[in-house]
């Protein structure tokens, strides 16, 4: 009975880990795909660094950007910096992004040729995606290790028993 309970219990953690890994891979795929999209000039209409506090002394930062661009004579508005980009601690990394955009004479937006309303300013496997992949891998390795420990504890110690000299 305890093995069935453990299997049901641990499966929840595997599902969460594989769902997170799948979601991160999906975002990474979109981010890489955007590297093949055409580009067009864009005008930044709003740019800011948002700071959020968790009340425990930890802050997270995120660059918020809005831009306009034109494709085949039609105006579009976008706000995606990159697929998967999100806030995190460490203001310096976000400040560098902000400074690059603020000091740019011009920016190019990448847009999906099948749906020009889908756009981004950057692409590739950036830090937010790397962190997501590392977290998912760490989560799954921990759950696998925990499963392995449970399995080993459930086995008899045959080597010890076989080599035990007792009269």
Give the arrangement of secondary structure elements.
Blueprint: H1 2-33, E1 39-53, E2 59-71, E3 74-78, H2 91-102, E4 107-112, E5 115-120, H3 127-154, H4 158-162
Helix pairs in contact: 1-3
Describe this structure in words.
- This is DUF3592 domain-containing protein.
- Residues 40-125 form the DUF3592 domain.
- Keywords: Membrane, Transmembrane, Transmembrane helix.
- InterPro entries: DUF3592.
- The chain crosses the membrane at residues 6-29, 131-153.
- The protein has 167 residues and is of the alpha+beta class.
- It has two domains: 1-36 and 125-153; 38-122, no CATH class.
- Helices cover 46% and strands 27% of the residues.
- It has helices at residues 2-33, 91-102, 127-154, 158-162; strands at 39-53, 59-71, 74-78, 107-112, 115-120.
- A five-stranded antiparallel sheet has the order 3-2-1-4-5.
- Helix 1 (2-33) packs antiparallel against helix 3 (127-154).
- The protein is elongated.
Helix and strand sequence: HEEEHEEHH
Domain module count: 2
Distance between the termini: 35 Å
The number of helical elements comes to: 4
Count of individual beta strands:
5
Structural class: alpha+beta
Query: Rg from C-alpha positions?
Result: 24 Å
* Mean pLDDT reading: 93
Q: Catalogue the unreliable spans.
A: none
Q: Tell me, what's the shape?
A: elongated
- Please identify the oligomeric state: single chain
How many strands, which pairing sense, and closed or not: the largest β-sheet?
A: 5 strands, antiparallel
Protein name: DUF3592 domain-containing protein
Domain DUF3592: 40-125
Transmembrane segments: 6-29, 131-153
Keywords: Membrane, Transmembrane, Transmembrane helix
